[in-house]
Design brief:
This protein has about 300 residues and is an alpha+beta fold. It contains ten helices and nine strands. Strands 1, 2, 3, 4, 5, 6, 7, 8 and 9 form a nine-stranded antiparallel beta sheet that branches.
Length: about 300
């Protein structure tokens, strides 16, 4: 997977002055557009579109300082329809407009080329299982919230606190299959998975029952799910599990993500997590992360 991903990165470099189609990058990487976007975001720490934009503006910045072409010629070369649009993007990355940068020879920012390599860090293994599930429904309560990669998601916490406990108890009784009990479900995420983009958050149960009045229902088609487990302090252990799945498990296994919700089942750990020093212990959790997956195709990209 990493070799194919690096071939896609080389394609980006050769076409920075042309349209870079995600569909073509996915073909080179021999995966789906959906999985490519998610893999890149997890490995690089930024959306694929943002990386391409920053690489273009890095090359454009060098040409601005070189002074050989007009600013409009450079803008058009790197995909901007007007000098104004180019100036706004240039300033957003470099902190200075292209005209002023050329006049003063200002120092500019640079986005380095990326290449992905496997780094071996110990001999730990990741626990997972594959589950084939028939279609089911997530019944519960829904809110639109921002995506948070690190630290607590205050919007989700406030939403859950506002749910009537009696209504939640009635919903919990509808749970009739794995993962059992109340679960957290994230759906309709922005393909970029950028920090702050919106997603649908469902707080409810996985069931075959109909949704009672006053609740929402998310229909999920049949498919294969990869189930990962972890224990540790919340929310760090959960966020680190999600990171490790995409940076370690997917590159090492013949599976890719498919469209569908992410399901998280969390229960208090019987063993509290020790805090730093003699202070109070941290809240520990046992968690299961369910991700919709499908086998990677065997086809290799054509040369």
């Amino acid at each position: 997977m990493l070799e194919r991903l690096n071939q896609a990165m080389e394609h980006i470099e050769r076409h920075l002055d042309q349209a870079v189609e995600v569909a073509e990058l996915a073909r080179i990487a021999a995966t789906s557009e959906y999985h490519l976007r998610r893999m890149f975001s997890a490995l690089a720490g930024m959306p694929l579109s943002e990386y391409v934009r920053r690489r273009r503006l890095t090359l454009a910045g060098a040409e601005v300082l070189a002074g050989r072409d007009t600013l409009l010629e450079i803008a058009v070369r790197y995909g901007y329809g007007s000098g104004e649009a180019f100036a706004r993007a240039f300033r957003a990355m470099h902190g200075i407009g292209p005209g002023e940068a050329r006049r003063t020879g200002a120092a500019l920012s640079s986005q380095s080329r990326m290449a992905f390599r496997l780094t071996v860090e110990g001999s730990s293994s990741m626990r997972y299982r594959l589950v084939n599930k028939a279609d089911f429904t997530v019944v519960g309560f829904k809110a639109r919230v921002p995506l948070v990669h690190v630290g607590p998601n205050r919007a989700i916490m406030d939403f859950v606190r506002g749910i009537d406990p009696r209504a939640l108890e009635r919903v919990e009784k509808l749970s009739d299959q794995e993962p059992h009990g109340i679960v957290a479900v994230c759906d309709d995420l922005d393909p970029s998975r950028a920090e702050g983009t919106d997603l649908d958050y469902h707080h409810g149960v996985v069931t075959s029952a109909a949704a009672p009045e006053g609740t929402t229902a998310l229909s999920v088609p049949a498919g294969t799910w990869a189930v990962f487990t972890t224990s540790g302090p919340a929310p760090q252990a959960i966020q680190e599990l999600w990171r490790d799945v995409f940076t370690e498990w997917f590159p090492s296994n013949p599976y890719r993500t498919r469209t569908g919700p992410e399901i998280l089942r969390i229960r208090p750990s019987p063993e509290p997590e020790p805090g730093p020093g003699p202070g109070p212990t941290k809240t520990g959790v046992d968690a299961e992360l369910w991700l919709p997956v499908e086998p990677e195709p065997d086809a290799r990209p054509s040369s």
